[in-house]
Amino acid sequence: MVSVPSIKLNSGHSIPAIALGVYQTPKDVAGSIVTKALDSGYRHIDSAAGYHNEQEVADAIGAWLKLNPSVKREEIFYTTKVWDTDHGYDKTKKQVELSLEKAKAIGYIDLVLVHTPRSNYESRHGTWIALQEAVESGKVKNIGVSNYGIKHIKELLSYPDLKVKPAVDQIELHPWLQQTELVKYLKEQGIEVEAYSPLVQAKKVDNPVVGELQKKYGKSYAQILIAWSLAKGFIPLPKTVTESRLIPNLESADIKLSSEDIKKLDDIPKNDPYASGWDPTIYPLDDEKK
Question: What ranges does the record give for the region Disordered, renumbered to this chain (predicted)?
Fold first, then answer.
């Protein structure tokens, strides 16, 4: 079984450096793919309230742990997220309670993220206060953000009642979208970087640079891009519902790209970068809307 390294968060907890993402994974598929992923060695599963599969994912983890008593609950890292329609103190408290109820089979949630910054100062602030309280309760171990740009992080860090810094910012990252300034800022603040769409949703499978490296290393398109993400210090979240791709994606942890090859990927022309189709990091703050 592949040994995937862990990264120490600013909270003191550790997070496995590769996750299975379950975005757009149907409810009737989520449980089985999560079970197979855990069998394959995954110890980090990334869900969200907006994915509508929290219950199935958490139940699958809980059932798997019962069948595998040699693996402790603390070895599995489960993430969920609060969507922007649930921003605000009261709404977020309710959403966290709902997510915890769905995660009853595993006892607690390792990481809750603010899914996007799309609301306003008061709502984002209230959401963060509610998440801090969830950490204080012990039912949520870590909190962070997703799709936050530098200005959104700066706003959060300026909250007068800030007690818990975000542990991570989950953003779209791959050689065609490197978000260099944002990544640099996050690292300076001690905030780890999670990379969603690390495979660019397979939109660049014919890229000649990646193809050259596939031949050199004898690896797949996905493995080269996941290896690049790991080499950059990111936590990639490759999504798949195809069981045959689970282990190869995880085996990317064993690939050591040379510095020259990392630079080749770094230097790929940045055309049409957003595989997700949007740039949430530029969502305006309140004073920018006036």
Answer: 268-290
Q: What is the pLDDT of residue 271?
A: 66
The Cα–Cα gap between 91 and 87 comes to: 6
SS3 content of the chain, % helix, strand, coil (to 5): 50, 15, 35
The pTM is what? 0.95
Q: For residue 212, tell me if it sits in a domain.
A: yes
Q: How many structural domains comprise the chain?
A: 1
pLDDT band at 278 (very low <50, low <70, confident <90, very high): confident
Q: Is residue 288 part of a domain?
A: no
51 is catalytic: yes
What type of residue is 26? P
Q: What is the pLDDT of residues 107-141, one digit of tens each?
A: 999 999 999 999 999 999 999 999 999 999 999 99
- Which residue among 42, 51, 148, 221 is the active-site one? 51
Q: What CATH number has the domain bearing residue 151?
A: 3.20.20.100
Flag whether 172 is in a domain: yes
- Give the angle 261-4-14 at the CA atoms, nearest 5°: 115
Q: Residue 202's domain spans which residues?
A: 6-269
Is 44 marked within a binding site? no
Residue 204 covered by a domain: yes
Residue 108 token pair: 């607690």
**Spacing of C-alpha 171 from chain mean position:** 8
